[in-house]
Amino acid sequence: xQYRLEHEHCGEGVVDSAMTTWEYAxxxxxxxxxxxxxxxxxxxxxxxxxxxxxxxxxDSLVAYLKRPKND
Length: 71
What we know:
Layout: E1 2-8, E2 15-29, H1 34-43, E3 47-54, E4 57-68
Antiparallel strand pairs: 1-2, 2-4, 3-4
């Protein structure tokens, strides 16, 4: 997956473009340790994108995370 970022300088009409390539992770979250799990992944550079109910019912959660790839 690729995400295109564009930056405009106000008043100058200059546009800088950079391509960021992302890597993604899907992880199960234990409801009694959600903060600790997310803090650990965050310390490794991962950004939380979304949390959704897991496939096994409402007691389980799945987190989707992303971080820039080091190409």
